[in-house]
Design a protein that fits this description.
Elements (H helix, E strand, L loop, with lengths): L54 H4 L2 E3 L18 H19 L3 E3 L17 H6 L4 E9 L5 E9 L4 E10 L4 H17 L7 E9 L6 E8 L6 E2 L7 E6 L5 E6 L6 E6 L5 E6 L4 E6 L5 E8 L2 E8 L5 E3 L7 E6 L5 E6 L6 E6 L6 E2 L6 E7 L6 E7 L1 E7 L7 E2 L6 E6 L5 E7 L6 E7 L6 E2 L5 E10 L2
Parallel strand pairs: 1-2, 1-3
Antiparallel strand pairs: 3-4, 4-5, 6-7, 6-29, 7-8, 9-10, 10-11, 11-12, 13-14, 14-15, 15-16, 17-18, 18-19, 19-20, 21-22, 22-23, 23-24, 25-26, 26-27, 27-28
Length: 466
């Protein structure tokens, strides 16, 4: 698969205004560039499957010069004026595409700046001389109301054609979202896959010594920026998950020593109790329609999986076998649940229907398998493969096709990017007990650590922001 074979259509449809997410962007009609649009491609059915060899993409040179401005006007966004902000926008786009590992971008710090008029009239010959294959150019303008208009264009340098353009009006404090949206447009146009840069991550921020860790809920952008603590650390917080509509986060709290499942409202900052027990309770997860919360609870020496309405009320027990049944995760269509159980003598992965029927084991390879999480695409299950070390691995929903993606000392708790392309997890350092948030591509390449202000565990990747 090459970039030329991907879908070449793009949309300027209005984005819905933010709900719980910050009131962000309206797509704006941008002036067309002087470069012609390419001819409609032959419809080859688009990309299929989940695992591809991306060597060809890694050689794809993308030039991303500083976004131009018609005049440098003061703004409260990073940089202080629109001219400086233009470079910051291009840097965020460069880092998004570079850290993804699929492309070979060159950023604004290594490229000449362009004039405002060149945004829609690229100097293709000059970029060809720099061996650029793709070109991302854009502009930022200050509006009379203090907001910013950001325009983003994607060009095929070799063909001298425009591949796509999008624009947004944003508040100054939300300028990074415009950059992420631009990176999403470039990624989707060149890969044919769904984007994921404009998304957020919830995780557990950890501080303190190994035997007395303080764990509090925190959220951040997909690249680690805009970090914010949600809880104050007075009660231990664990296993957060974003709701499908991005309005809420469900998590487990040990307020006053008792396990309670809370739902935190991102828009209001308020939280409400879903269920509580004096028994150990674990791993709350949303159903795809946001109506149910799965969780596990230990009673009488056994642990079983339950579901409760997201509005609270009585719980329904879904498993009822001796041993430990824990870590339920719905399939994308909500019809099935993957979970971990030791009913066969060791931790293995099982699948059951959403009502608890038809339970069957799917993992039969060497070692143990824990913390399964169904891909948003539905065709893979990520889990912790315990075979000596703790590794992040994937397999198909029928248990075949095992692939270890990492091989460190202790990697666990995978969570999928919104497009099912990247897996995030946390890694514990041997001896020190320090934890960090890491991610790896579905191919097993491009492993990297996200910067967080303190140690981090239990990451949960939310959907793409509206």
């Amino acid at each position: 698969m090459t970039s030329r074979q991907t879908v070449l259509l793009f949309s300027l449809a209005l984005l819905p205004l933010g709900i719980a997410a910050p009131a962000f962007a309206q797509a704006q009609l941008l002036p067309p560039s002087a470069a012609p649009a390419p001819a409609a491609p032959h419809d080859d059915g688009g990309l299929t499957g989940s695992v591809t060899d991306d060597n060809a993409w890694q050689d794809l040179g993308i030039a991303i010069p500083t976004f131009a401005t018609d005049q440098a006007v003061p703004t409260s966004a990073d940089g202080g004026n629109t001219a400086a902000l233009g470079k910051n926008l291009a840097r965020v786009i460069y880092n998004d595409l570079k850290n993804n590992g699929l492309f070979k971008p060159v950023g604004p710090d290594a490229l000449p700046a362009i004039e405002f008029a060149q945004v829609t009239a690229p100097a293709f010959d000059g970029w060809r001389g720099r061996s650029a294959e793709m070109l991302v150019q854009g502009f930022v303008k200050g509006n009379p109301d203090g907001r910013l208009t950001v325009g983003c264009y994607l060009y095929d340098v070799q063909l001298g054609s425009e591949l796509g353009r999008q624009g947004y009006i944003v508040k100054p404090e939300e300028w990074r979202r415009a950059a992420h949206k631009c990176a999403d447009m470039v990624y989707s146009r060149l890969s044919g896959e769904s984007p994921f840069f404009d998304s957020k991550i919830a995780y557990i921020a950890e501080t303190g010594p190994k035997d007395h860790r303080r764990k509090q809920l925190a959220i951040m952008d997909s690249d680690g920026a805009n970090h914010r603590f949600i809880t104050n650390g007075q009660a231990t917080a664990l296993t957060p998950r974003y709701s499908p509509d991005y309005r809420q986060i469900v998590y487990l709290s040990y307020l006053n020593g008792a396990p309670r499942i809370y739902i935190y409202d991102i828009g209001t900052g308020q939280q409400r109790l879903v269920t509580q027990s004096t028994n150990p309770t674990f791993a709350p997860r949303w159903s795809p329609d946001g109506k149910w919360i799965l969780y596990s609870m230990a009673t009488g020496g056994n642990t079983n999986i339950y579901r409760v309405s997201a509005n609270g009320g009585p719980s329904q027990q879904l498993t009822n076998t001796p041993g430990i049944n824990v870590g339920g995760s719905y399939s994308p269509d909500g019809s099935k649940i993957v979970f971990e159980s030791d009913r066969s003598g060791g931790q293995q992965v099982y699948v059951m229907d959403a009502d608890g029927t038809n339970q069957k084991r799917i993992s039969f390879f060497g070692g143990r398998a824990a913390t399964p999480e169904w891909s948003p695409r539905g065709d893979q299950i990520a889990f912790t493969h315990i075979a000596g070390n703790f590794r992040i691995a994937v397999m198909s929903p029928n248990g075949t096709g095992l692939r270890d993606l990492t091989d460190s000392w202790q990697d666990e708790a995978p969570t999928w990017s919104p497009n099912g392309r990247i897996i995030q997890f946390f890694r514990t350092e041997r001896n020190s007990g320090r934890t960090g948030i890491w991610q790896v591509d579905l191919t097993g390449r491009n492993e990297r650590k996200l910067n967080t202000p303190v140690d981090g565990s239990d990451p949960a990747w939310g959907p793409v922001l509206p």
